[in-house]
Amino acid sequence: MNPFIELGIRHDIVNAISELGFENPTPIQEQSIPVLLTGSNDFVGLAQTGTGKTAAFGLPLLELLDFEENYPQALILCPTRELCLQITNDLNNYSKNMPNVHVVAVYGGASISDQLRQIKRGVQIVVATPGRMLDIINRKAIDFSKVKFVVLDEADEMLNMGFQEDIDSILSTTPDEKKTWLFSATMPAEVRRIAKKYMTDPHELTMGTKNTGNANIEHEYYIIRARDKYAAFKRIVDFNPEIFGIVFCRTKIETQEIAESLIKDGYNADSLHGDLSQQQRDKVMKRYRDRSLQLLIATDVAARGIDVNDVTHVINYSLPDELENYTHRSGRTARAGKTGVSISIINGKELGKIRQIERVIGKKFIKAEIPTGFDVVEKQLFALVHKVHNVEVNEQQIEQYTPRIMEEFKELSKEDIIKRFASLEFNRFLEYYKNAPDLNAAVEERRPFEERGERGERGERAPRSNGGKSEFTRLFINLGSVDEFNRGDLLGYICNNTKISGRTVGKIDVKGVYSFFEVANDDVEKVMTGFKGIDFKGREVRIEVSGEGTSSTRTGGERREGGYNRSGGGERREGGYNRSGGGERSGSGERREGGFNRERSNAGGSTGGGFRDFSGKRREDRPERRRRF
Ligand code: AMP
């Protein structure tokens, strides 16, 4: 039996949602639908957007209302026009097989007379933003005296936006015996207060732990020097060729600046902020939804209610002033059971803020490293290779050109042709990134005593101190993301082949065609022996001690190793990309490699030009705004 039928939803609704691809209820639907269907409880649901909460309250409402009557029986209040339209649209979709269901969307910035006309014609469900709703109530154009259910959706957002008084006034026009269902992503004291004020003994449902973000979101932070922020951000974007992201800034000027710089640098980006007219906003959102934009640069307020599936990354270009906003921001990714990454680009002074956010969301951040220029080049190259591999060939159309193409290539071997195709993109990236500096800033964090030497998330291990020497050795392995390994897979693969315990494996850094991992010094031999003669899909698996540093030289505070292909001695030449100019470290510990520092000494100069039409204008030319925390 269809699981929604088992939950008590009738066939005509189930048929409609099946067409939307709802096969199984999401956890919040599973738990709230049976409770709400009784129609006899007030209800508080602590749930993020993207968890399926619209159907969680929408399906029971459709079951409980009397659609033979044409007066308002349910009022759904939500913070933004976007969410209002989304909910209305969802309800219309769920009820498309039901006769005489009338849902009206009431929101500001659109013709009030149209909305009044729809109300006059008769509606059972009103979905509204508080401001316009109050306006209509004040015109005495609606009668809520027979409302049975009020839904307060994204209650925390409504309070953040200052709608408390409007909500009070609106609810005062509804009968006392109505049931109130409140949904909120977070539960600050103000939401608790309204829950207490409007509800009696509500049934409470928490998805995950309180105030915890979506479990499918991985939270990462990068530490950079303030002046390198834009360059670091771009590198993260370049390292994720398939990114479909929302970038959060604190001010609208910042959103505009970033969007302008990105556009100038050849990215598909645009900004969304409070100064845009509704029409402009709609246009930007349409382009984003259609994927004509890859990056949407937004302020917190402008991004409220943004409801786009498949957002792969949320990037906190600036951390939010209000901690609660971090949850809202990151909740824009990993919707509908998907996974997503929330990235924060911070300077060393903001690390304390990350620790505070960790406490709020109840989850550890992973400290990530800004990819090297080489990492980006490699990632982009393989993205291109995959694209070429997977491209759909229109046999019919291309047939007429095939003989001429063959003729053109007849002197070249298959290998030569492949190399040339790949080089089309690769050369541009190589050129752009050839002198790219290391953008990671070294920061020593004082951690509470009890945390020191403990393992955080994998990928972030505070090195265990051993008289100033690490107990870990960093190893290179010639397998990486192109072999479809992530950190977890690689850990399993290492443990299976070597029989060492996962607990003795430290930081795992998965790259494109290779990876690094740390193992306890005592286990290095076991790993070497374990992988002897092992092959992966016909390729010999190779393990080497990474870079210049073996365990005995790596001290606790030291960061990224010289690593693959970049260290002076033991230089590796693989796949022909040799970027090293013979590494050397200056006395200050600053890396000076193959011209890696040229960008910085070349004040205001170009990073090399070429790729994405880079204008050469560096962000540090602009004064950095002072941070409020
Ligand atoms: P919401 O949290 O209501 O905004 O829902 C987030 C997304 O998940 C929307 O695109 C819904 O269409 C989708 N969705 C909701 N419930 C289900 C379900 N049971 N199965 C599949 N997708 C769902």
- The helicity comes to 25-40%
**What characteristic shape results from the CA principal axes?**
globular
Query: CATH homologous superfamily of the largest domain?
Result: P-loop containing nucleotide triphosphate hydrolases
Q: Using only CA atoms, what is the Rg? A: 28 Å
Which architecture of the largest domain per CATH?
3-Layer(aba) Sandwich
Report how far the terminal alpha carbons are from each other. Answer: 54 Å
List the topology elements.
Blueprint: H1 3-7, H2 11-19, H3 27-37, E1 43-46, H4 53-64, E2 74-77, H5 81-94, E3 103-106, H6 112-121, E4 125-128, H7 130-138, E5 149-152, H8 155-160, H9 164-171, E6 179-184, H10 189-198, E7 203-206, E8 217-223, H11 229-239, E9 245-248, H12 252-264, E10 269-272, H13 278-289, E11 295-298, H14 300-303, E12 313-316, H15 323-330, E13 340-346, H16 351-361, E14 366-367, H17 373-390, H18 395-399, H19 402-409, H20 414-433, E15 465-466, E16 469-470, E17 472-477, H21 487-498, E18 505-510, E19 515-520, H22 524-530, E20 535-536, E21 539-540, E22 543-545, E23 584-585, E24 591-592, H23 598-601
Parallel strand pairs: 1-6, 1-7, 2-4, 2-5, 3-4, 5-6, 8-13, 8-14, 9-11, 9-12, 10-11, 12-13
Antiparallel strand pairs: 15-16, 17-19, 17-22, 18-19, 20-21, 23-24
Helix pairs in contact: 3-4, 4-5, 7-9, 11-17, 15-16, 17-20
This protein binds adenosine monophosphate (AMP).
